[in-house]
């Protein structure tokens, strides 16, 4: 069965697992990666981390129908050596969770667990409010000008891709910053001895 972990615990375990892999193997596809999920009514946006956990890249969204997910996700998980999911948790700008959307996201994860196909994978939730600045920047840099002439379903797919990228990138940035602060504090302590 898939296992929920607190956000910090998931990141720590990922780093520990990857620290056991020799450097050259990390760079050649042996690293354990994270998959960002942005779950919407019609599609699930997907983004994958790089082996250093610095960057997130969009990959093709999947239809939000469990039959499609059961077919599509195993290939993605195998191809990218996925360790766990970072699931975007919908919120509004006042930091209140959106009940209907949150129920929809939790139902998706429950249905995913009930398939029995994703045993051993970890997952956590990450607040979409943290991702909003990343999404807005990615959107302005990469999407905005192209959307004007596209049909609405293609616009939705592109926005979906960048929402998943934003969620995963915000998560990675947060824990990289925490890790950097910890290392700096250790160095300062050692320097003061």
TrEMBL record:
Gene3D superfamilies recorded: YqgF/RNase H-like domain
GO biological processes: rRNA 5'-end processing
Cited SUPFAM superfamilies: Ribonuclease H-like
Pfam families the UniProt entry points to: RuvX
InterPro entries linked: RNaseH-like_sf, YqgF, YqgF/RNaseH-like_dom_sf
Transmembrane regions listed in the UniProt entry: none
Name by which UniProt lists this protein: Holliday junction resolvase
Organism the protein comes from: Acer saccharum (Sugar maple)
